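Checked the freezer inventory, then went back to the computational side. Two predictions to log before the end of the day. The first one is the construct we discussed on Monday; recording sequence and tokens without edits.
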Amino acid sequence: DGRAGYIAAPISNRWCAMPWPDRRFTELLKIEHPIVLAPMAGAIDHEIAAEVAEAGGLGSIPCAMLDLDQI
């Protein structure tokens, strides 16, 4: 949709899309948007991580409260 590689930046008390200055991070991780979901144990689950990944960001699964069988 033409928005890949853009960040929101404040300009004159308004937010607008600006080109992301460095694409190495998104290219390295093969993601569309420079958004990383923090793996917050107890607050999020695998479903949110999957949604972030499907939307082009890096979804992270919180595993701090899981044992090996659950992972």
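The second is the one RB wanted added to the comparison set:
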Amino acid sequence: RRIEAPAAPADDEGTLLRQARRGDHDAFARLYALHAPGVHALAERLLADAPAVADRVVARWVGGAARYASA
């Protein structure tokens, strides 16, 4: 009898990263949902201009999506 490893949780970060690298848009969206609030909070502490914060956070995520899409 063979014992199989349990399936990874749906939001396991390593699994989501692998799926996003393979072009899974839903996995990338889940990564965004997990990390965007923290990235935004850090950007707010580093930048004084609120509109610039939103623009820079979005630009970073769009750049990440483009990098995964071309991989």
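For RB: The chain has a mean pLDDT of 77. Residues 15 and 21 are 10 Å apart (CA to CA). Let me know if you want it refolded.
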